[in-house]
């Protein structure tokens, strides 16, 4: 499979991390794909849900380098800098069976270090090419993916709960994408989370111009796992939410079994 | 360049000492071109993930060194020789400390090209062999995949590939490769031998990057005063400003 890249975005608290982690779990369980999960949420939600401890983030690397620049220490020429960042980013990967997790972290100092950001993005993009699938758990603001992770993704999955606020956010993101003010993507789709009934979905779809990829029913087990900080790797595959995520993957052209 | 002649002599003593204390020092056979070409990469850097890894060489938590010692005294280099102190790739699973030392004999390589020569050692494109590097720290991190070990990837292949790669890019009259994997201490012991290389590379990088020639405040003034080639390089850069 040729490295497909999927980013999940939406308002905070609507279930971005659950959806990304569930997709990662189902696809890793296939056993024949190598998955790169990129946690672009500063609170490391995805890493935690996947049971991964983050030792170093891309922003740690960025900030170390910026410190070096501020202190007036040498960073070497561009190829030296690239080697250093490439080495550090690879060292920041948390690797498991068929899965590697990269945490982006939160920049402490925005500053204007475009060259460093661009080099890091190039390295992440180049690293991504070595995986069958890349899944990005985005921050609430979509511009972060574009600025800090990568310029182009294949599928942008916008997720919302059934609240008007959540739907307003995904509609606003869609407008940014249409006007090329955010990450470039080949396809944008909507997932509605914590749905009580199909009628709710129909009602929401009347007001938005987004293709529906699927919907996830309210599932108490998600809240229970979240509350107890249990990793999704133990989540039962027969749970209604995971069954729904499997269907969403198929909608994205991804089978969660290797047959 | 003559700056490293003394270091090469010290390296010979280091190897002899290892032999004396009963360390396994092996001269590896030359590989035919066919053996090396079966590992030809795809033109993009290889990534080897941990679960596919047979052995890691010089992992960030282990001792690591990659250095080129350049000399005009061609007799100091045994052209084509590849030596190994410690276990070979197939013999060690997991993690190994790692030193890769290239002794290069050339009367044609310019002093300024020493930086390029150093970087070139990290640009090996072999299937199933991943290299990450911190050139200014002379640090190399390699991963060898399980598949490539099954296919016969060894230090003999690696050494020969380095010889082929560097000789095809630079005019080198002789090139010898020494790998050390025996212990953390054995790799760290080479720190003294590589000290001057580290300083010379640092000074060259500074000259090229900054074009600042305020010697009174430069941390490399000691090595620049000592190493003739650096003085010459500095002079040439000053004249070209």
Describe the fold and architecture:
The complex is a heterodimer of chains A (259) and B (241). Chain A is an alpha/beta fold and 259 residues long. Chain A is globular, with a radius of gyration of 18 Å. An eight-stranded mixed beta sheet of chain A has the order 3-4-2-5-1-6-7-8, sandwiched between helices. Chain A starts with a strand and ends in an 8-residue tail after the last helix. Chain A contains ten helices and eight strands. Chain A has one domain: P-loop containing nucleotide triphosphate hydrolases (Rossmann fold), CATH 3.40.50. The mean pLDDT of chain A is 86. In chain A, helix 7 (164-178) links the parallel strand 6 and strand 7 (184-195). Chain B has 241 residues and is α/β, with parallel strands linked by helices. Chain B folds into two domains: 5-189, Bifunctional carbon monoxide dehydrogenase/acetyl-coa synthase(codh/acs), Chain M, domain 3 (2-Layer Sandwich), CATH 3.30.1650; 194-239, no CATH class. Helices cover 39% and strands 21% of the residues of chain B. Chain B contains nine helices and nine strands. In chain B, the strands form two sheets. Chain B has a five-stranded mixed beta sheet, with helices on both faces. A four-stranded mixed beta sheet of chain B has the order 5-2-8-7. The longest helix of chain B has 20 residues, at 191-210. The model of chain B has no long low-confidence stretch (mean pLDDT 87). The interface between A and B is medium-sized, with 21 and 22 residues.
> Could you tell me how far the N terminus lies from the C terminus of chain B, measured between alpha carbons in angstroms?
24 Å
- The appropriate CATH architecture of the largest domain in chain B is 2-Layer Sandwich
What's the average pLDDT of chain B? Answer: 87
Structural class label of chain B: alpha/beta
The number of strands of chain B is 9
> In the CATH scheme, what's the topology name of the largest domain in chain B?
Bifunctional carbon monoxide dehydrogenase/acetyl-coa synthase(codh/acs), Chain M, domain 3
What's the gyration radius of chain B in Å?
18 Å
CATH first level of chain A? Alpha Beta
Helix count of chain A equals 10
What amount of the residues of chain B lies in strands?
15-25%
Going across the biggest sheet of chain B, name each strand in turn: 1-4-9-6-3
Inertia-based shape of chain A: globular
Oligomer: heterodimer
Report the sheet with the most strands of chain B, covering strand number, pairing sense and barrel closure. Answer: 5 strands, mixed
């Amino acid at each position: 499979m040729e490295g497909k890249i999927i980013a999940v975005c939406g308002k905070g608290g609507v279930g971005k991390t659950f959806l990304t982690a569930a997709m990662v779990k189902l696809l890793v369980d296939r056993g024949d794909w190598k998955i790169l999960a990129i946690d672009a949420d500063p609170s490391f939600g995805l890493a935690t849900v996947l049971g991964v401890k983050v030792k170093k983030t891309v922003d740690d690397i960025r900030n170390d380098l910026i410190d070096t620049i501020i202190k007036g220490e040498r960073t070497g020429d561009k190829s030296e800098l690239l080697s250093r960042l490439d080495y550090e980013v690879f060292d920041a990967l948390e690797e498991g069976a068929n899965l590697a997790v990269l945490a982006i972290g939160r920049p402490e100092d925005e500053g204007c270090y475009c060259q460093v950001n661009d080099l890091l993005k190039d390295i992440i993009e180049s690293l991504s090419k070595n995986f069958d699938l890349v899944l990005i758990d985005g921050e609430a603001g979509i511009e972060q993916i574009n600025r800090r992770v990568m310029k182009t993704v294949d599928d942008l999955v916008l997720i919302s709960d059934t609240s008007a606020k959540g739907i307003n956010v995904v509609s606003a993101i869609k407008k940014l994408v249409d006007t090329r003010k955010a990450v470039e993507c080949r396809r944008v789709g909507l997932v509605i989370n914590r749905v009580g009934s199909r009628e709710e979905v129909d009602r929401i779809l009347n007001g938005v111009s987004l293709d529906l990829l699927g919907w996830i029913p309210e599932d108490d087990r998600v809240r229970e796992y979240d509350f107890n900080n249990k990793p999704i790797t133990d989540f039962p595959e027969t749970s209604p939410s995971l069954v729904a995520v499997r269907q969403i993957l198929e909608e994205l052209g991804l089978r969660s079994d290797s047959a | 360049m003559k700056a490293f002649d003394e270091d090469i002599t010290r390296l010979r003593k280091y190897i002899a000492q290892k032999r004396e204390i009963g360390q396994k020092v092996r001269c590896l056979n030359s590989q035919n071109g066919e053996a090396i070409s079966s590992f030809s990469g795809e033109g993009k850097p290889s990534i080897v993930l941990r679960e596919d890894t047979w052995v890691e060489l010089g992992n960030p938590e282990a001792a690591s060194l990659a250095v080129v010692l350049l000399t005009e005294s061609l007799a100091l280099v045994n052209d084509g020789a590849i030596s190994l102190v410690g276990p070979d790739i197939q013999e060690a699973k997991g993690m190994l400390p790692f030193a890769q030392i290239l002794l290069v004999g050339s009367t044609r390589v310019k002093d300024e090209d020493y930086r390029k020569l150093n970087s070139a050692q990290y640009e090996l494109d072999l299937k199933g062999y991943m290299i990450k590097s911190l050139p200014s720290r002379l640090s190399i991190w390699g991963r060898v995949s399980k598949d490539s070990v099954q296919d016969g990837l060894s230090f003999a292949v690696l050494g020969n590939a380095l010889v082929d790669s560097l000789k095809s890019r630079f005019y080198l009259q002789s090139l010898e490769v020494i790998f050390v994997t025996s212990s953390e201490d054995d790799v760290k012991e080479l720190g003294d031998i590589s000290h001057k290389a580290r300083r010379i590379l640092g000074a060259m990088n500074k000259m090229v990057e900054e074009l600042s020639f305020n010697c009174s405040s430069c941390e490399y003034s000691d090595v620049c005063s000592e190493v003739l080639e650096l003085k010459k390089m500095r002079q040439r850069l000053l004249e070209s400003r």
